[in-house]
Structure to design on (200 residues):
């Protein structure tokens, strides 16, 4: 995949810093899916889209480093949640927008990533989140880096929901079909095994 020169450059953040509770405490981004770690699939999808690929990880930095231009970690211990990783990504981002993806959506495709970037370019001052049906996907989003201070303010006031922060900032939605298979969230051993047995 080559860089799309039509779209404004963006930084990309892959979230791999969670506790992995649904995976029995395992480091989710390093679990294998179709013969490779989950993080490798997201790296393959995103590497050609940016020269600023950031991974948020709180464990195993030496294993994540080959997949990233930068590694960030939560500044608050004990796995405080994805908003902490997003804050760290916004602070580190080298471009005007930060596209955020969790590490457990390996079925997302290039067309959807392009649609996210194109939609964000048309409304550069607002966050963008994916939606399918009536369900928001706050960890599949594009955030203007200029809003980093608003995220910091929300955090300082005790907010921990990325979705609420973005909706309060007037986020818009990129609508996907209900039950879109590209958004399959492989966040339990059962789902990982089920999708592992289904070929692309």
């Amino acid at each position: 995949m080559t860089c799309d020169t039509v779209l404004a450059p963006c930084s990309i953040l892959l979230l791999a810093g969670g506790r992995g509770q649904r995976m029995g405490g395992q480091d989710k981004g390093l679990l294998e899916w179709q013969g490779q770690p989950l993080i490798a699939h997201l790296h393959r999808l995103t590497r050609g889209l940016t020269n600023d690929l950031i991974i948020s990880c709180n464990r195993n930095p030496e294993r994540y480093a080959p997949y990233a231009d930068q590694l960030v970690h939560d500044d608050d211990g004990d796995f405080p949640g994805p908003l902490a990783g997003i804050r760290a990504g916004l602070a580190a981002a080298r471009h005007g927008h930060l596209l955020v993806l969790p590490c457990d959506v390996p079925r997302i495709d290039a067309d959807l990533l392009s649609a996210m970037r194109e939609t964000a370019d048309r409304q550069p001052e607002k966050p963008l989140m994916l939606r399918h049906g009536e369900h928001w996907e706050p960890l599949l989003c594009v955030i203007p880096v200029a809003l980093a201070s608003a995220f910091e303010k929300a955090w300082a006031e005790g907010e921990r929901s990325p979705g609420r922060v973005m909706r309060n900032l007037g986020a818009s939605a990129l609508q996907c079909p209900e039950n879109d298979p590209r958004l399959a969230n492989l966040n339990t051993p059962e789902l990982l095994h089920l999708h592992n047995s289904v070929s692309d």
The chain has one domain: 11-17+25-196. Strands lie at 11-15, 32-33, 36-37, 53-56, 70-72, 97-102, 128-132, 135-144, 172-176.
